[in-house]
Design a protein that fits this description.
The complex is a heterotrimer of chains A (288), B (243) and C (339). By secondary structure, chain A is mainly alpha-helical. Chain A is built from 11 helices and 2 strands. Chain B is an alpha/beta fold and 243 residues long. In chain B, α5 links the parallel β7 and β8. With 339 residues, chain C is an all-alpha fold. Chain C has one domain. Chain C has a two-stranded antiparallel ribbon. Classes of the chains: A mainly alpha (288), B alpha/beta (243), C mainly alpha (339). Chains in contact: A-C, B-C. The interface between A and C is large, with 39 and 40 residues.
């Protein structure tokens, strides 16, 4: 019984962290069709912004929920205006350019922060589950993931901006014809995706740590989760994270973390074989 | 009575809940020229795509020269002697006109004939000037010609032409009519068209499709005076039959 | 295809290539020759992606996996058997077999392009993860330890055929550059053959190719297998050159680099990927000599600049520019006498 609860917590944590890692990319890809290969670095920058802020004396929560997202959002908006917006529709060029940005960010981070060894300890200590013990922070991550999902859903479903953004996602030409400033919508959407990624990086930093190359480990999982999820940025990512995260964690329990990773990858292959347009290409179509 | 060259029996194709083709029986004799008309959404292109193998029928069978070709892959159907000019041109956009024709000729007519056939067609279709131009840079009418050329290059026994006159100037339409006349009797053709003038000029027997079913099959004059046909066309606002 | 053998472009490439290969070891230092050897090997890998993606239209992350399989196959075979023969053979056979399996499921299962890209990515990642775990002493094939994240050290160098003596630095250069030139010329011939021309047409419009009667699955599989063979051979040379092969070749970073070489040089050409690879390698090496320069920053800026300024890639941009220049000169050419 206790073991079951423990496993459940760890599975939920795996799902939650996969969701957080992927959702920023899903927003940008789902709403704008842009494959941002610098996404992993957004997570990295968010993590560093958080850690550096805390070490500079900023309050933990402020650093996590304000400093990190804002920093990455700003960077996101800047690169959207300088680089991404010139490449809309040119998928291959966007990949090349964002890969270049990824390398650039890694390089800058290595030069300026490569020496930085400090981390941030996760708060909340340990939580007992019967005979077992797990980090209280795991629950926090799960809660944040749920909150992010709910918040983004509310934003897209119930606000005016959300309506405009969804309309632009469905048919940019029509949206423009109806008077929407599509460029502005894209800028803001990219900024939101970046902000969420920054938050995710900050939230995961106490457990995963931050190094300049950590983005590389995130990007593959994020990318696969987004493709498996399908066209709907929120429903797709949530479902894909749920499925892949569970498979990953379950396999890790009975063997090793590496095999858990392999299981996730194999599951993705199988899922895509039967659902070529991702989960939300078939189920929950048209959802957000 | 000649054995059926092409025969479709109780052909159905549904997408989700919608039946684009709902029980079509279609028989074609060798050397026949059949026109297929109907309002938009009547199921003409879906029917063609089942003939070429691009779509598998939900139900029903198709026989070509006695072979059952239902659900076979497009390349197999093509090798049995079927060529199609599609409604939306399917061409090798980034390749030169000559290369498009060569690829069509090479597969069907072999290495030795391919270059000669290509040269002949470039002349005949007056595409020699643009032989080296990328197809994507040509006008719509010219692209239709290239696609017609590709169909001719393969010299199939059954030609399916989906809106061959669409987007053509009246000179080009004349040339298309002339081309079809040269093929009449020697090859079997099924032509989908909206341009009623064009249909009138070339039609022998006409099949009218409406909502996935065959409404009527008759000569052009009988069709034009058929009240059910007028109802179907006017009812679905597809443009005048008199026009 | 026979016409291509006499075409001026082909002959010029062959001639220039042979001259360069023969001459370079005479002028350049050993260190440069050593580096040029690996550039040639990587350029051969770039060529394989240029073929599969640029010509075949199959974008995937698999070429690095075939490269890695080739490298590992060579290393294991060369450690266990004397002579380079078995190693080179294994380096080609293993990737081709893997490609045959993947290709069969992909092309005969008629999967979409996006799916193909994703499974090639995931298969590479699976290999990366698995190989990284083979660190223990138990993981060995014959005499060769798989080495896990440490890789396989002391990989035997290439031997002169029938002589058994290992190649010198110059010899390795001749072999690597010779491989590059041979593959390049062979691929040029291939693309002018019926097979090559059909492959390109499949890339342009799979629908139309099928409607003309071509079995597109076979052509895609064919070009995929050839690409795997070329990548595998390059992998063998790579392992032999550095006397080492490690799991980094299976990483997504390396897979992405190959894609970048092809994009930078010009997708849809054969010489483009070669040039793109050389440019990136040379620039990275040159800028690495400066104090405090970071290769990531340099490459990052390079890619950004390439995309913003040379969107079609180096080779196509140069071709259009020379084309425009020639047309401008022709237009301004010698005055015709008035009629």
């Amino acid at each position: 019984m206790d073991a079951g609860a423990l496993i459940l917590v760890h599975v939920l944590y795996a799902v939650a962290s996969l969701f957080l890692i992927a959702v920023g990319l899903a927003i940008v890809f789902g709403m704008m069709g842009v494959i941002n290969f610098a996404h992993g670095e957004f997570l990295m920058i968010g993590g560093f912004a958080f850690v550096l802020a805390v070490h500079a004396g900023v309050d933990f929560w402020l650093a996590m929920f304000v400093v990190a997202p804002l920093t990455v959002a700003l960077i996101g908006v800047v690169i959207e205006r300088l680089v991404i917006r010139h490449l809309y529709g040119r998928i291959v060029d966007t990949v090349l350019a964002t890969w270049g940005l990824s390398l650039l960010f890694i390089g800058i981070a290595s030069e300026t922060l490569g020496y930085f060894q400090e981390g941030v300890a996760p708060p909340f200590g340990a939580v007992r589950i019967g005979a077992y013990q797990t980090g209280g922070y795991n629950f926090f991550v799960i809660a944040v993931a749920a909150a992010v999902l709910a918040g983004l859903y509310a934003l897209l479903r119930y606000t005016r901006f959300g309506l405009i953004a969804r309309g632009t996602m469905q048919n940019p030409a029509m949206a423009a014809a109806l008077g929407t400033n599509v460029r502005a919508v894209y800028s803001v959407t990219f900024g939101i995706g970046a902000a969420v990624s920054g938050l995710a990086g900050a939230v995961l930093a106490p457990i995963a740590g931050v190094v300049p190359v950590i983005g590389v480990t995130y990007i593959a999982e994020a990318f696969i989760t987004v493709i498996v999820g399908g066209a709907s940025p929120l429903a797709g990512t949530a479902l894909a994270a749920a499925l892949l995260g569970t498979i990953n964690q379950a396999t890790t329990f009975v063997s090793t973390a590496v095999l858990g990773e392999v299981a996730l990858l194999l599951a993705a292959i199988v899922l895509l074989r039967f659902l070529p347009a991702g989960i939300t290409g078939r189920f929950l179509r048209g959802s957000v | 009575m000649s054995a059926a060259f092409l025969e479709a029996r109780d052909l159905w194709r549904t997408f989700g809940g919608v039946a684009a083709v709902a029980g079509v029986d279609f028989t074609l004799a060798q050397g026949e020229l059949r026109c297929l008309i109907g309002a938009n959404g009547a199921g003409k292109s879906t029917f063609f795509r089942m003939l070429t193998g691009q779509l598998a029928p939900t139900r029903g069978r198709i026989r070509l020269k006695g072979h059952d070709i239902t659900g076979r892959a497009p390349f197999e159907v093509a090798r049995l002697g079927v060529g199609i000019k599609t409604q939306v041109p399917s061409l090798f956009e980034g390749l030169p006109v000559a290369e498009n024709l060569w690829l069509a000729a090479r597969r069907a007519q072999g290495a030795r004939r391919a270059d000669a056939v290509t040269a002949e067609l470039l002349e005949e279709l007056r595409l020699a000037r643009v032989a080296d131009a990328e197809v994507g840079t040509l006008s719509h009418g010219q692209r239709q010609w290239v696609e017609l050329g590709m169909v001719l290059a393969a010299d199939p026994e059954l030609l399916l032409l989906d809106e061959p006159a669409a987007g053509m100037t009246s000179d080009e339409v004349e040339a298309t009519v002339a081309l079809i006349e040269r093929l009449r009797g020697r090859r079997t053709l099924v032509i989908v068209e909206h341009d009623m003038h064009f249909v009138r000029r070339i039609a022998e027997k006409v099949t009218v499709l409406h909502r996935g079913r065959v409404l009527v099959e008759d000569t052009m004059d009988s069709i034009l005076s058929n009240p059910a046909v007028r109802e179907a066309y006017l009812g679905s606002r597809a443009g005048g039959l008199d026009g | 295809m026979r016409r291509e053998l006499r075409a001026p472009g082909f002959l010029a490439a062959a001639g220039l290539g042979l001259v360069l290969i023969a001459a370079l070891p005479q002028w350049a230092e050993v260190y440069t020759i050593f580096n040029l050897s690996v550039y040639a090997v990587l350029a051969t890998l770039a060529l394989s992606l240029g073929l599969v993606w640029g010509m075949g239209g199959l974008l995937g992350f698999g070429q690095s996996a075939f490269f890695g399989l080739g490298g590992y196959a060579y290393a294991i075979a060369a450690i266990n058997f004397a002579g380079s023969g078995p190693g080179l053979l294994a380096a080609i056979v293993l990737p081709v077999l893997a490609a045959a399996v993947i290709g069969y499921f992909a092309f005969f299962g008629r999967i979409s392009d996006v799916y193909f890209a994703v499974i090639s990515l995931t298969v590479s990642l699976i290999l990366y993860n698995l190989i990284n775990t083979t660190s223990g002493a138990a993981y060995r094939i014959g005499q060769a330890p798989l080495g896990g994240y440490n890789g396989i050290p002391s990989v035997p160098p290439l031997n002169l055929p029938f002589a058994g003596t290992p190649l010198s630095f110059e010899g390795t250069f001749y072999a690597a550059a010779g491989l590059l030139l041979a593959v390049y010329l062979a691929l040029r011939l291939l693309m002018r053959s019926r097979f090559g021309r059909v492959v390109v047409s499949v890339r342009e419009s799979e629908t139309r190719a099928e409607l003309l009667g071509y079995d597109v699955r076979l052509y895609k599989l064919g070009v995929f297998l050839i690409g795997a063979a070329v990548a595998g051979a390059a992998g063998a040379f790579y392992a032999a050159w550095g006397a080492f092969i490690g799991p980094d070749v299976f990483s997504i970073g390396f897979a992405a680099q190959i894609i970048v070489w092809v994009l930078l040089g010009g997708l849809g050409t054969l010489i483009g990927p070669v040039i793109g690879c050389f440019v990136v390698q040379a620039l990275t090496a040159w800028l690495g000599e400066f104090e405090g320069s970071n290769p990531n920053i340099v490459l990052g800026v390079l890619f950004l600049a390439a995309v913003m300024l040379l969107p079609k890639g180096i080779v196509p941009t140069l071709r259009s520019a020379t084309g425009r220049l020639m047309r401008a000169r022709a237009a301004a050419g010698p005055r015709e006498p008035a009629a």
